[in-house]
Amino acid sequence: MPLPSPGPLFETPPVPVNPGRGWRWGSLSPPAAGSRGADRAAVGTMKVLLLKDPKEEDPGPDPYVAELGLWGLEATLIPVLSFEFLSLHSFREKLSHPEDYGGLIFTSPRAVEAVGLCWGRGRPPAEWEGSLKDQWNAKPVYAVGQATASLAGRMGLAPQGQHCGNAEKLAEFICSREAAAPTPAPLLFPCGAVKGEALPAMLRDKGVPMESITVYRKAPRPGLRESLRGYFSTQGVPASITFFSPSGLTYTLEHLRELSGDAFRQIKLAAIGPTTARAMAAAGLPVSCSARGPTPRDLADAIGEALRT
Protein backbone atom coordinates (compact mmCIF):
# COMPACT_ATOMS: atom_id res chain seq x y z
CA MET A 1 0.00 0.00 0.00
CA PRO A 2 1.38 3.47 -0.81
CA LEU A 3 2.85 5.36 2.10
CA PRO A 4 2.16 9.07 2.61
CA SER A 5 4.84 11.68 2.33
CA PRO A 6 7.08 11.73 5.45
CA GLY A 7 6.82 14.03 8.42
CA PRO A 8 8.54 17.28 9.40
CA LEU A 9 12.04 16.24 8.28
CA PHE A 10 11.01 16.41 4.65
CA GLU A 11 7.52 17.92 4.55
CA THR A 12 6.91 21.38 3.13
CA PRO A 13 4.10 23.79 4.00
CA PRO A 14 0.83 23.25 2.13
CA VAL A 15 0.54 26.93 1.26
CA PRO A 16 2.84 29.46 -0.42
CA VAL A 17 5.76 30.77 1.57
CA ASN A 18 4.51 34.04 3.07
CA PRO A 19 1.32 33.52 1.01
CA GLY A 20 -0.03 36.35 -1.08
CA ARG A 21 3.02 38.56 -0.67
CA GLY A 22 6.18 36.57 -1.34
CA TRP A 23 9.55 37.20 0.22
CA ARG A 24 10.57 40.84 -0.13
CA TRP A 25 14.23 41.67 -0.56
CA GLY A 26 14.18 45.47 -0.88
CA SER A 27 16.86 45.75 1.81
CA LEU A 28 19.38 43.64 -0.08
CA SER A 29 22.33 45.49 -1.52
CA PRO A 30 22.90 45.13 -5.27
CA PRO A 31 25.96 43.21 -6.49
CA ALA A 32 29.17 44.98 -5.60
CA ALA A 33 30.58 44.99 -9.10
CA GLY A 34 30.00 43.81 -12.64
CA SER A 35 27.00 44.08 -14.92
CA ARG A 36 24.38 42.59 -12.62
CA GLY A 37 23.92 45.85 -10.71
CA ALA A 38 23.02 47.65 -13.92
CA ASP A 39 20.86 44.73 -14.98
CA ARG A 40 19.02 44.94 -11.68
CA ALA A 41 18.15 48.57 -12.28
CA ALA A 42 17.06 47.82 -15.83
CA VAL A 43 14.62 45.13 -14.72
CA GLY A 44 13.06 47.06 -11.84
CA THR A 45 10.62 45.57 -9.36
CA MET A 46 8.54 42.82 -10.94
CA LYS A 47 6.79 39.80 -9.51
CA VAL A 48 7.99 36.26 -10.21
CA LEU A 49 6.10 33.07 -9.37
CA LEU A 50 8.17 29.96 -8.63
CA LEU A 51 6.23 26.70 -8.75
CA LYS A 52 8.40 24.77 -6.30
CA ASP A 53 8.71 23.72 -2.68
CA PRO A 54 10.80 25.80 -0.29
CA LYS A 55 14.25 24.42 0.43
CA GLU A 56 14.26 21.57 2.92
CA GLU A 57 17.53 22.07 4.78
CA ASP A 58 16.34 24.93 7.04
CA PRO A 59 13.43 27.35 7.39
CA GLY A 60 15.37 30.39 6.16
CA PRO A 61 14.72 32.27 2.93
CA ASP A 62 14.85 30.13 -0.18
CA PRO A 63 18.05 30.65 -2.23
CA TYR A 64 16.07 31.10 -5.46
CA VAL A 65 14.09 33.90 -3.83
CA ALA A 66 17.28 35.49 -2.53
CA GLU A 67 19.04 35.37 -5.89
CA LEU A 68 16.05 36.84 -7.71
CA GLY A 69 16.06 39.59 -5.10
CA LEU A 70 19.49 40.64 -6.37
CA TRP A 71 17.76 41.45 -9.66
CA GLY A 72 15.19 43.53 -7.78
CA LEU A 73 12.54 40.86 -8.40
CA GLU A 74 9.90 39.92 -5.83
CA ALA A 75 9.49 36.14 -5.85
CA THR A 76 6.85 33.91 -4.30
CA LEU A 77 7.04 30.13 -3.89
CA ILE A 78 3.96 27.97 -4.28
CA PRO A 79 4.48 24.24 -3.60
CA VAL A 80 2.99 22.13 -6.37
CA LEU A 81 3.70 18.46 -5.68
CA SER A 82 2.98 15.86 -3.03
CA PHE A 83 4.48 12.38 -2.99
CA GLU A 84 3.49 8.83 -2.14
CA PHE A 85 6.23 6.29 -1.49
CA LEU A 86 5.95 2.84 -3.02
CA SER A 87 7.61 -0.60 -2.94
CA LEU A 88 9.68 0.26 0.11
CA HIS A 89 9.88 -3.36 1.29
CA SER A 90 11.36 -4.42 -2.05
CA PHE A 91 13.70 -1.41 -2.04
CA ARG A 92 14.91 -2.30 1.45
CA GLU A 93 15.68 -5.84 0.30
CA LYS A 94 17.81 -4.47 -2.53
CA LEU A 95 19.58 -1.98 -0.28
CA SER A 96 20.34 -4.83 2.14
CA HIS A 97 22.38 -6.60 -0.55
CA PRO A 98 24.91 -4.10 -1.91
CA GLU A 99 27.02 -7.01 -3.15
CA ASP A 100 24.44 -7.51 -5.91
CA TYR A 101 24.94 -4.02 -7.36
CA GLY A 102 27.66 -1.86 -8.83
CA GLY A 103 26.44 1.37 -7.23
CA LEU A 104 23.50 3.73 -6.77
CA ILE A 105 21.91 6.44 -8.93
CA PHE A 106 19.80 9.23 -7.43
CA THR A 107 18.14 11.78 -9.71
CA SER A 108 15.76 13.34 -7.16
CA PRO A 109 15.67 14.13 -3.44
CA ARG A 110 12.60 11.90 -3.08
CA ALA A 111 14.57 8.85 -4.15
CA VAL A 112 17.05 9.58 -1.36
CA GLU A 113 14.21 10.04 1.13
CA ALA A 114 12.97 6.58 0.21
CA VAL A 115 16.22 5.11 1.58
CA GLY A 116 15.40 6.42 5.06
CA LEU A 117 11.75 5.43 4.81
CA CYS A 118 12.66 1.81 4.08
CA TRP A 119 13.22 1.42 7.82
CA GLY A 120 10.34 3.67 8.89
CA ARG A 121 10.14 7.41 9.41
CA GLY A 122 13.31 9.35 10.05
CA ARG A 123 16.86 8.17 9.69
CA PRO A 124 17.66 4.47 9.16
CA PRO A 125 18.71 2.38 12.19
CA ALA A 126 22.07 0.84 13.03
CA GLU A 127 21.60 -1.70 10.23
CA TRP A 128 22.16 1.12 7.74
CA GLU A 129 24.46 3.32 9.79
CA GLY A 130 26.87 0.45 10.23
CA SER A 131 27.96 -1.94 7.52
CA LEU A 132 25.36 -1.24 4.82
CA LYS A 133 26.22 2.42 4.44
CA ASP A 134 29.93 1.64 4.29
CA GLN A 135 29.40 -1.11 1.71
CA TRP A 136 27.47 1.27 -0.55
CA ASN A 137 30.11 3.96 -0.09
CA ALA A 138 32.69 1.49 -1.39
CA LYS A 139 30.81 1.72 -4.69
CA PRO A 140 29.99 4.81 -6.78
CA VAL A 141 26.93 6.73 -5.60
CA TYR A 142 25.79 9.09 -8.35
CA ALA A 143 23.52 12.07 -7.64
CA VAL A 144 22.37 14.88 -9.90
CA GLY A 145 22.19 18.39 -8.45
CA GLN A 146 23.18 19.86 -5.12
CA ALA A 147 19.81 19.28 -3.40
CA THR A 148 19.86 15.55 -4.12
CA ALA A 149 23.54 15.25 -3.22
CA SER A 150 23.01 17.15 0.04
CA LEU A 151 20.29 14.74 1.15
CA ALA A 152 22.46 11.79 0.17
CA GLY A 153 25.20 13.24 2.34
CA ARG A 154 22.80 13.47 5.26
CA MET A 155 22.17 9.75 4.80
CA GLY A 156 25.90 9.17 5.23
CA LEU A 157 26.57 8.55 1.55
CA ALA A 158 29.38 10.13 -0.47
CA PRO A 159 27.78 11.14 -3.78
CA GLN A 160 29.55 12.14 -6.95
CA GLY A 161 28.29 13.84 -10.09
CA GLN A 162 26.35 16.57 -8.30
CA HIS A 163 27.96 19.13 -10.60
CA CYS A 164 25.90 17.69 -13.46
CA GLY A 165 22.99 20.00 -14.12
CA ASN A 166 20.46 17.40 -15.23
CA ALA A 167 19.92 13.68 -15.71
CA GLU A 168 21.30 13.70 -19.25
CA LYS A 169 24.60 15.19 -18.12
CA LEU A 170 24.70 12.78 -15.19
CA ALA A 171 24.24 9.90 -17.64
CA GLU A 172 27.25 11.14 -19.62
CA PHE A 173 29.26 11.35 -16.40
CA ILE A 174 28.23 7.83 -15.35
CA CYS A 175 29.10 6.38 -18.75
CA SER A 176 32.54 7.98 -18.68
CA ARG A 177 33.25 6.61 -15.20
CA GLU A 178 31.82 3.15 -15.81
CA ALA A 179 33.71 2.80 -19.09
CA ALA A 180 36.97 3.30 -17.19
CA ALA A 181 36.09 0.63 -14.60
CA PRO A 182 33.33 -1.60 -16.00
CA THR A 183 31.45 -3.96 -13.69
CA PRO A 184 28.93 -6.68 -14.56
CA ALA A 185 26.75 -5.73 -11.59
CA PRO A 186 23.92 -3.28 -12.38
CA LEU A 187 23.60 0.18 -10.90
CA LEU A 188 20.52 0.43 -8.66
CA PHE A 189 18.27 3.31 -9.76
CA PRO A 190 15.38 4.22 -7.42
CA CYS A 191 13.05 6.53 -9.33
CA GLY A 192 9.56 7.95 -9.64
CA ALA A 193 6.63 6.36 -11.43
CA VAL A 194 7.10 8.90 -14.23
CA LYS A 195 10.76 9.29 -15.06
CA GLY A 196 12.71 10.72 -17.94
CA GLU A 197 14.06 8.19 -20.40
CA ALA A 198 17.26 10.04 -21.30
CA LEU A 199 19.40 8.51 -18.53
CA PRO A 200 18.20 4.88 -18.89
CA ALA A 201 18.47 5.09 -22.69
CA MET A 202 22.01 6.46 -22.64
CA LEU A 203 23.20 3.87 -20.13
CA ARG A 204 21.58 1.11 -22.16
CA ASP A 205 23.18 2.36 -25.38
CA LYS A 206 26.61 2.44 -23.72
CA GLY A 207 26.21 -1.03 -22.26
CA VAL A 208 26.10 0.13 -18.63
CA PRO A 209 23.84 -2.29 -16.70
CA MET A 210 21.13 -0.68 -14.60
CA GLU A 211 18.19 -1.92 -12.52
CA SER A 212 15.40 0.55 -11.76
CA ILE A 213 12.78 0.35 -9.02
CA THR A 214 9.84 2.73 -8.63
CA VAL A 215 9.85 4.11 -5.08
CA TYR A 216 7.52 7.12 -5.30
CA ARG A 217 4.87 8.77 -7.40
CA LYS A 218 3.83 12.39 -7.71
CA ALA A 219 0.40 13.92 -7.22
CA PRO A 220 -0.93 17.49 -7.13
CA ARG A 221 -0.43 19.07 -3.74
CA PRO A 222 -3.68 19.39 -1.76
CA GLY A 223 -4.96 22.95 -1.92
CA LEU A 224 -2.89 23.83 -4.99
CA ARG A 225 -5.74 25.54 -6.84
CA GLU A 226 -6.63 27.61 -3.77
CA SER A 227 -2.99 28.65 -3.29
CA LEU A 228 -2.74 29.81 -6.90
CA ARG A 229 -6.05 31.64 -6.68
CA GLY A 230 -4.92 33.39 -3.50
CA TYR A 231 -1.72 34.53 -5.18
CA PHE A 232 -3.43 35.94 -8.27
CA SER A 233 -6.15 37.66 -6.24
CA THR A 234 -3.63 39.54 -4.09
CA GLN A 235 -0.58 39.90 -6.34
CA GLY A 236 -2.11 40.00 -9.79
CA VAL A 237 -0.51 38.46 -12.87
CA PRO A 238 3.25 37.94 -12.40
CA ALA A 239 5.82 39.06 -14.94
CA SER A 240 7.33 35.56 -15.01
CA ILE A 241 6.42 32.02 -13.96
CA THR A 242 8.99 29.24 -13.54
CA PHE A 243 8.16 25.55 -13.90
CA PHE A 244 10.46 23.18 -12.03
CA SER A 245 9.26 19.86 -13.47
CA PRO A 246 7.03 18.45 -16.21
CA SER A 247 4.65 17.24 -13.49
CA GLY A 248 4.44 20.72 -12.03
CA LEU A 249 3.56 22.00 -15.48
CA THR A 250 0.84 19.39 -15.90
CA TYR A 251 -0.77 20.13 -12.53
CA THR A 252 -0.77 23.94 -12.84
CA LEU A 253 -1.13 24.93 -16.50
CA GLU A 254 -4.93 24.87 -16.67
CA HIS A 255 -5.24 26.86 -13.43
CA LEU A 256 -2.66 29.43 -14.57
CA ARG A 257 -4.43 30.02 -17.87
CA GLU A 258 -7.77 30.41 -16.12
CA LEU A 259 -6.48 32.80 -13.46
CA SER A 260 -4.43 35.02 -15.78
CA GLY A 261 -6.89 35.15 -18.68
CA ASP A 262 -5.70 37.04 -21.75
CA ALA A 263 -2.64 38.26 -19.84
CA PHE A 264 -1.20 34.73 -19.88
CA ARG A 265 0.35 35.43 -23.29
CA GLN A 266 2.37 38.28 -21.78
CA ILE A 267 3.96 36.19 -19.02
CA LYS A 268 7.61 35.18 -19.47
CA LEU A 269 7.59 31.42 -18.93
CA ALA A 270 10.82 29.92 -17.60
CA ALA A 271 12.08 26.34 -17.24
CA ILE A 272 14.53 25.04 -14.66
CA GLY A 273 16.19 22.82 -17.28
CA PRO A 274 15.95 21.09 -20.66
CA THR A 275 13.52 18.34 -19.62
CA THR A 276 10.97 20.85 -18.36
CA ALA A 277 11.59 23.09 -21.36
CA ARG A 278 10.78 20.21 -23.70
CA ALA A 279 7.57 19.51 -21.78
CA MET A 280 6.59 23.17 -22.10
CA ALA A 281 7.23 23.15 -25.84
CA ALA A 282 5.23 19.93 -26.20
CA ALA A 283 2.33 21.69 -24.45
CA GLY A 284 2.51 24.49 -27.01
CA LEU A 285 4.02 27.03 -24.62
CA PRO A 286 6.70 29.56 -25.57
CA VAL A 287 9.82 29.02 -23.47
CA SER A 288 11.07 32.51 -22.72
CA CYS A 289 14.18 31.19 -20.99
CA SER A 290 15.73 28.07 -19.51
CA ALA A 291 18.34 27.99 -16.76
CA ARG A 292 21.76 26.78 -17.87
CA GLY A 293 21.91 24.73 -14.67
CA PRO A 294 19.51 23.96 -11.81
CA THR A 295 20.95 26.66 -9.56
CA PRO A 296 19.49 29.89 -8.16
CA ARG A 297 22.11 32.01 -9.94
CA ASP A 298 21.50 30.41 -13.34
CA LEU A 299 17.73 30.73 -13.07
CA ALA A 300 17.83 34.32 -11.80
CA ASP A 301 20.17 35.36 -14.61
CA ALA A 302 17.94 33.69 -17.21
CA ILE A 303 14.76 35.34 -15.89
CA GLY A 304 16.46 38.69 -15.46
CA GLU A 305 17.68 38.69 -19.04
CA ALA A 306 14.27 37.56 -20.34
CA LEU A 307 12.50 40.38 -18.51
CA ARG A 308 14.84 42.97 -19.99
CA THR A 309 13.73 42.14 -23.54
From TrEMBL:
GO biological process, alphabetically ordered: heme B biosynthetic process; protoporphyrinogen IX biosynthetic process; uroporphyrinogen III biosynthetic process
Coiled coil regions, renumbered to chain: none
Tetrapyrrole biosynthesis uroporphyrinogen III synthase domain span: 64-300
Enzyme class: lyase
Annotated pathway: Porphyrin-containing compound metabolism; protoporphyrin-IX biosynthesis; coproporphyrinogen-III from 5-aminolevulinate: step 3/4
One Pfam family here: HEM4
Enzyme Commission number(s): 4.2.1.75
GO molecular function: uroporphyrinogen-III synthase activity
Catalytic activities: hydroxymethylbilane = uroporphyrinogen III + H2O
Keywords on record: Heme biosynthesis, Lyase, Porphyrin biosynthesis
Matches recorded under InterPro entries: 4pyrrol_syn_uPrphyn_synt_sf (IPR036108), 4pyrrol_synth_uPrphyn_synth (IPR003754), UROS/Hem4 (IPR039793)
Highest taxon above the source species: Eukaryota
Annotated function: Catalyzes cyclization of the linear tetrapyrrole, hydroxymethylbilane, to the macrocyclic uroporphyrinogen III, the branch point for the various sub-pathways leading to the wide diversity of porphyrins. Porphyrins act as cofactors for a multitude of enzymes that perform a variety of processes within the cell such as methionine synthesis (vitamin B12) or oxygen transport (heme).
PANTHER family cross-referenced by the UniProt entry: UROPORPHYRINOGEN III SYNTHASE, UROPORPHYRINOGEN-III SYNTHASE
Protein family according to the UniProt entry: Belongs to the uroporphyrinogen-III synthase family.
Protein name: Uroporphyrinogen-III synthase
Lineage: Eukaryota, Metazoa, Chordata, Craniata, Vertebrata
Gene that encodes it: UROS
